[in-house]
Amino acid sequence: MSDSLSRATPRRFKVPDNRLHRTKHYLDAGLWGTQTLHGLLANNARSHPDREAVVDQPDKASLMGVSPRRLTLRQLDEASSACALALQARGITPGDAVILQLPNTSELIVLYYALNKLGAVISPIAVQYAAHEISHFAAELHPAAFITVGELRGADLAAQAREVLSDTPVIDVLADLDVFAGVGGSSESTPEWANDPNAILTIAWTSGTTGTPKGVPRSHNMWIAQGRITAHAAEYRDGERLLSPFPMINMAALGGFLFPSALCNCTLVLHHPLDIPLYLQQLQEESINFTLAPPPLLNRLAQQAEMWNQFDFSALRVIGSGSVPLSPAMIEVFESDFGKPIINFYGSNEGIGLIATPANSPSPADRAQLFPRLGAPGMSFESFAPDAMLTRIDDVETGATVTEAGVPGELVVDGPGVFDGYLNHDGDGVFTADGFFRSGDLVEICPDKPSHYRIVGRCKDIINRGGTKLSPSEIDSLLESMPGLAEAAVCAYADDDLGERICACLVILEDSEAPTLDALRDFLRDKGLARFKLPERLEVFSSLPRNPLGKVLRNALREQVEKR
Q1: What letter does residue 431 receive in the DSSP assignment?
Q2: Which SUPFAM superfamilies match (predicted)?
Q3: pLDDT in tens, 386-409
Q4: pTM of the model
Q5: Nearest-CA neighbor of 486 among 334, 324, 300?
Q6: What's the average model confidence in pLDDT over 439-457?
Q7: DSSP β-ladder status, 97-100 and 121-124
Q8: In a domain, 499, yes or no
């Protein structure tokens, strides 16, 4: 893999010395290969040209002012080839960075394949980002182009970008570029597209929960390895239909849908932003076989079965969720009452890929909170390859390997889907001495089930109450099972005596009343929570601050609490 991303820009990306062996190692082991994303599409288009590849959400006209599209594999290949040539004519060359700020629509999928064919580096960002974030990404990337849309529910994202990026061409997919011009066209010859599977394909961005978002360069081989982990865990089958409600900008959607759909020749049905009635309608009308859903939505459906029962979800085989600890009660309802298994995904843009499935974690209580110790010494779990994900726990202070159950430490990981370092970063503190990625997540070997990890929280997220360090995620997961709550999370707030105390932050379901602090404490006490972990304050919100992945922004929540 090249040490730099482009000959023409000052972007820096150097593979650490203790990871230089990876390319040969993973190629020799068969964990990396010669495929590219667009190569997978070409194969699928040859084998099943008329199978649907991409399906827009039905209300696209209200989102972007244009009609929804349904593209076959042949049409997606045609459209992306013509779009690649059009972008090439605009001066985009291999290694150039291109920022994409688009919702989940067929335009975005065409652009992924088109830019991939050119060998450009794709950097997708959330549609919620504005001038401040755009300026940061542009300064880091020096992009050759910024592709967005002039109409997104009344917002002109193209105009916003032009105000910020005076030296970067801004392309509006509705006014400046017809990404579907090649549909139905024919070409006498196929251009020689970029075909290096170890070239950087994307630079996604961390959520910024611990500071400024960092760029995460990932190659085709890294993404394909991650896609194989997901496809194996969820048992994707050839021709299945997948519904993606998460923005197509990060691990959840790219590793969970875009790459697995290409690997397994599946139909990708799009949805964005999350609209619960429309999402449920698409699940039924598009005969969806697999989807991911945010935990708050699943919790609401489990508590309001009438929402679920008004639809026919007979085609739905399994549901994935994650990003925060799940509610065991929710999993129990979905599996016992609705007949739909829940898979718990725990991942990151850097390449963490822990997955709790009915096969490796049959108990709903285990699957909600625990993850198999994939690749840990002495542990054996079925995956697409024995060393697809290597994990262990390191002591936060000393770096020594933790083998004792119940002792928290930092999760460190390696494998073919793990990245090689951040963009424009000196690498300090990112990897261990032997090349494992330091996740920043605090985990422990579960005393009651030593084959599994329990996620304790972020190393920097722990609540320090009078010298006792507490995991907020443990309390979150118990609160989410409390009747009448749509969302729940705890955060620290400053206290002169103890340093920090615990505040419960709640969003109340419609037609429900907020519990008193005493009632909430009684509920948690009945669940077996220790007295010193009980919240000492309760605040009600209309919504909790979350990043585009649905993770609670605990620092932002704390700021809001302390302003009250």
Answers
A1: B
A2: Acetyl-CoA synthetase-like
A3: 678 999 999 988 899 999 999 989
A4: 0.84
A5: 300
A6: 91
A7: parallel
A8: yes
